[in-house]
Amino acid sequence: MPYTYGGSDWPAAALLYWNILMNTKSSARKPRGSPERTVQQVAHAVLPTRYGPFTIYGFKGKGALEEAVALVRGNLNGRKAPLVRVHSQCLTGDVLTSLRCDCRAQLELSLKKIAQAPSGILLYLPQEGRGIGLMNKLRAYQLQDDGMDTVEANESLGFAADAREYEFPARILKKLGARRSRLLSNNPDKVRQLESAGIHVAQLVPCQPRISRISRRYLKTKKHKMGHLLEGL
User: Fold this and answer.
1) Does residue 144 lie in a domain region?
2) Number of Cα atoms under 13 Å in the Cβ half of residue 59
3) pTM
4) Annotated catalytic sites, by residue?
5) Residue 28: inside a domain, yes or no?
6) Which CATH number goes with the domain that contains 209?
7) Residue 37 has what pLDDT?
8) Is the pLDDT assigned to residue 18 strictly greater than 80?
9) DSSP string covering 65-125, please?
């Protein structure tokens, strides 16, 4: 079954481009070890939110950074695949309301859409700064203030433009029984990684809040240098 983006087939040229580029990226990744590494459910509780009630789960893997929470609602094994957002932690955006990025707006949009769907999951992962950590992210901000874009800044610090990996969140989704999903994302690399880890992405659902004047340059870089599927840029 072909991917769809929103309600349209994903263009073949875009798929070909991303297959070539992301296969090159994956060959440079360090081995992750056995795909059968375990994931442990630590706790769960009711979580009332302004978007409605969720159940919050805590998960832990074997790696030092393998911790995540999942907000879940509805029957994940229903006829329609659950709406899933795999969201990377952003202290500056999610908590401190920075306008340099669209992270908080994406988080809020995702919670709203999942609350309106028959079922869904929001996974919240400690992958600050696209996987480089908070202090390095602030170093990258300083370089951006001096004129670099977000990709140039990460690479000048010795990191990949996007260092995130999605094998651990894929294991959490499997633990929850969600082996298929409608993925809230603009990032084809996330689709490729989740698919390669055994999660079927039936649909790629746009997750694009309103573009602000301040975040426009950042989002243009994500579109033109990282291949994110963004409209109006």
Assistant:
1) no
2) 26
3) 0.81
4) 162, 164
5) no
6) 3.40.50.10990
7) 60
8) no
9) T-EEEEEEES-TTSSSPPEEEEEE--IIIIIT--SSSSHHHHHHHHHHHHHHSSSEEEEEE
